[in-house]
Design goal:
Layout: H1 2-6, E1 13-14, E2 20-27, H2 32-38, E3 44-48, H3 50-54, H4 62-75, E4 80-84, H5 111-117, H6 119-132, E5 137-142, H7 148-167, E6 176-181, H8 184-188, H9 190-196, E7 199-202, H10 204-212, H11 230-245, E8 251-252, H12 262-269, E9 273-276, H13 281-288, H14 293-306, H15 310-320
Parallel strand pairs: 2-3, 2-9, 3-4, 4-5, 5-6, 6-7, 7-8, 8-9
Antiparallel strand pairs: 1-2
Helix pairs in contact: 4-6, 6-7, 9-11, 12-14, 14-15
Bound molecules: phosphoenolpyruvate and magnesium ion (MG).
The site of phosphoenolpyruvate (PEP) has 10 residues, from β3 and α10.
C-alpha cells in the first residue's frame, strides 16, 4: 500500500477519465516546503506566514521575511507558490503586540483588517514578498477579505511598494494578487471579485464557521460546523463557477479539500486546485485516480439541487463513488 502511494510521488494528478487536477500543500514554515515536495506536492497553495510573526518575541524584519519567502520559492523551483499575508487576530495573537480586547474576536480585528490598519507592518511584508518574487512563481493572497474596497486598498498599497522598488532600480518579478474567499460576503460577490483579482482560494475552515455561525473551535456548537451542509456546498459552487466564468482556475486551501467525502463533490464542481496538508496529498491523488469527473459532476448537481441535510449529502456521495470509506 505504502509502496503504491510512493509510486505516485512524481506523478501528475489525473482522474480516471484523465482530467488534470493540481494538488498542492499548505505550509506554516519555510522548512515545510521540503516535506511538501517529499509528499508529491505540485505547488504551495497556502503559506500561512503568521507563524513567522508568532514564533518570535518581536516583529520579523523585512530581511528575515525575505529569506523565508525566498527559501520556499527556491525549494519549489518554478512550481507555483501562494503566500498569504499576515492572518493575525481571532485566536492567533502576537505576544509582543498590544491587541484590543474584543467580545467577538473572530468577527473582529483580524487579518487584512489588521494589515490595513497597521500599514507599516503590512508594507514591510509586501516589500519582503516583492524582493522574493525574483526567485520563483509567486502569488500573494489577502486573508479575510469581506469587501472589494479592502482588496482595492490592499492592492494599491502593494502597487505603491512595487513602484518604489522599480524607481530604485530593484528587480521585481511578476506577481499575481488575489484573495482568500472565507467570508460569506466575498463568496456571494465572487462574480465581482473574480473580475478584479488574479486568483482566489476558498478557505473553507473559516467559510464554514461564518456561513453556519458556528465557531470552528467550540465543542458546544461542533454539531453545527458542517462542511457538507448544502448551504456551504451551494456557496462553494457559486465561487467555483465565478472563477470559471472569468477563465480563472478555482482553488481551495481549507481542510475540506482533503476530505474524502467532500473531494468527489468538489471534483464534480470543477475545482482545479486542491491545497492540503502534505501528509494527505498521496492518498488524495490515489483516490482521484478512481473517480470519473462526468459522474462526479452528476453527483455535484444532485447534491446542490436536492440535498436538504449533510446526511443526505454523505449518502449521495457514498452511493456514487467507487471506493470504500
Ligand atoms: C481557512 O480558513 O480555510 C484557511 C485555510 O485559513 P486558516 O485555516 O489559516 O484560517
Ligand atoms: Mg482562514
Amino acid at each position: 500500500k505504502l509502496n503504491s502511494l510512493n509510486n505516485l510521488k512524481q506523478r501528475k494528478t489525473v482522474t480516471k477519465d484523465k482530467k488534470r487536477v493540481m494538488l498542492s500543500a499548505n505550509i506554516g514554515t519555510h522548512n515545510d516546503a521540503t516535506t511538501a515536495l517529499k509528499n508529491g506536492a505540485e505547488g504551495i497553495g497556502l503559506y500561512r506566514t503568521e507563524f513567522l510573526y508568532m514564533n518570535s518575541d518581536r516583529l520579523p524584519t523585512e530581511d528575515e521575511q525575505f529569506q523565508s519567502y525566498k527559501t520556499v520559492l527556491q525549494r519549489m523551483k518554478n512550481k507555483p507558490v501562494i503566500i498569504r499575508t499576515l492572518d493575525i487576530g481571532g485566536d492567533k495573537q502576537l505576544p509582543y503586540m498590544q491587541m484590543p480586547k474584543e467580545d467577538n474576536p473572530f468577527l473582529g480585528y483580524r487579518a487584512i483588517r489588521f494589515s490595513l490598519n497597521k500599514e507599516d507592518i503590512f508594507r514591510t511584508q509586501l516589500r519582503a514578498l516583492l524582493r522574493a518574487s525574483n526567485y520563483g512563481d509567486l502569488s500573494i493572497i489577502f486573508p479575510m477579505v469581506s469587501t472589494l474596497g479592502e482588496f482595492r486598498a490592499a492592492k494599491s498599497i502593494y502597487n505603491e511598494e512595487r513602484q518604489k522598488m522599480i524607481n530604485q532600480n530593484q528587480p521585481v518579478g511578476k506577481i499575481k494578487i488575489g484573495i482568500m474567499v472565507e467570508v460569506p460576503s466575498a463568496a456571494i460577490l465572487a462574480d465581482q471579485f473574480a473580475k478584479e483579482v488574479d486568483l482566489m482560494s476558498i478557505g473553507t475552515n473559516d467559510l464554514i464557521q461564518y456561513t453556519m455561525a458556528a465557531d470552528r473551535g467550540n465543542n458546544y456548537v461542533a454539531n453545527l460546523y458542517q462542511p457538507y451542509h448544502p448551504a456551504v456546498l451551494r456557496l462553494i459552487k457559486h465561487v467555483i463557477d465565478a472563477c470559471h466564468h472569468e477563465h480563472k482556475p478555482a482553488r481551495m486551501c481549507g481542510e475540506m479539500a482533503s476530505d474524502p467525502i467532500a473531494m468527489p463533490i468538489l471534483l464534480g464542481m470543477g475545482l482545479d486546485e486542491f491545497s492540503m496538508s502534505s501528509s494527505s496529498i498521496l492518498k488524495i491523488r490515489s483516490l482521484m485516480k478512481k473517480l470519473d469527473t462526468n459522474k462526479m459532476a452528476k453527483l455535484a448537481t444532485k447534491v446542490v439541487h436536492s440535498a436538504n441535510t449533510s446526511e443526505d449529502v454523505i449518502e449521495m456521495v457514498k452511493s456514487m463513488v467507487s471506493f470504500q470509506y
